Amino acid sequence: MPVQPSPVVMGIETSCDETGVALVRDGVLLGEALSTSMDQHARYGGVVPEIAARAHVQAVVPCVRAALSSAGLTAADIGAVAVTAGPGLATALHVGVSAAKAYATALDVPLYGVHHLAGHLAADLVDGEPLPDPVIALIVSGGHTSLLRVGDLARDPIVHLGDTLDDAAGECFDKVARVLGLPYPGGPAVDRGAVGNDPTALAFPRPLTGRTDSPYTFSFSGLKTAVARWVEAHPDSTVPAGDVIASFQEAVVDVLTAKAVRACRDHEIGDLLIVGGVAANSRLRALAAQRCDAAGIRLRIPARKRCTDNGVMIAALGDLLVRSGAAPSRPDLAAMPGAFLDHAQLGVAHPAQRAA
Ligand code: KG4
Ligand code: ZN
Question: Which residue's alpha carbon is nearest to atom 22 within ligand 1?
Fold first, then answer.
């Protein structure tokens, strides 16, 4: 019997300030487009939801056209639509979900609502091997910081080993960058500002790393305050700004990598996956590589351009769901701004949730 080719899956991402669209079939990236409203938010020092939503409205159809054209395809070639249904900014999510429903209805193809963070986990499926199963995953984005145990991403429940009690790692980078007078977005500015400077110049705290602390729980708001207090208390400091930046960054990446390696060891899992916008950080990538090497852990981090939000990760996850035989999401799929990560797909009743 001839093998049916998998459908072309279009992925749409609009949870924050990036409008991303991509086309993936059978784990192969066919085309993509990305538009960002980042510059429009810079003067406010953070993402303004209404501005982001308006930019998505303007960008989503042109991005679909650009992705199709880069793939040499037409809309009629799309066989399924995947979309970030949450978590994220409500106004921004609504745009993507509405667009995805419109395309799925007009083209008469199935619709898959997906969890944004599960999309991050799938970000480099189009570049490499399938994900190891099981794998310990560290998600570090602007809104979330979690250590997870992930099995079959398309099917299994995702187990949270620990999360942040307060600020996310990316949020900490962004807020501290503001305190240090660096431009928005803060993460890349800190990354650049730390290069070639002394990460040991100042001993900023490593929160929740004491013997009696929960080994996989994070907290970054105290570290943010510690940097702000230090800056206030040392207006005439002779410590070079680059050393302050490097010392702060080192505190964040030291905690993240130590806890991630500890989770692998404790759970006897030899693979670590680090994803999300902060995974683009050059020092995090270097320290994780060094510590995983020393501990005999295989490390996987997507290419830097796939760490921050994009459409490829959503199309890759949609393609994985389709190939795993997942049923489509309900046609009344709604944006879920506060969606908790327990399954990759949203808008379906998972067995565990049905039983609950
Ligand atoms: O995953 P992402 O693009 O959006 C969310 O889902 O939140 O992550 C954005 C976060 C921002 O906080 C940004 O400052 C941070 O990722 N980020 C970085 C770097 N690039 C982006 N943080 C540290 N170093 C970087 N190179
Ligand atoms: Zn993200």
Answer: 187
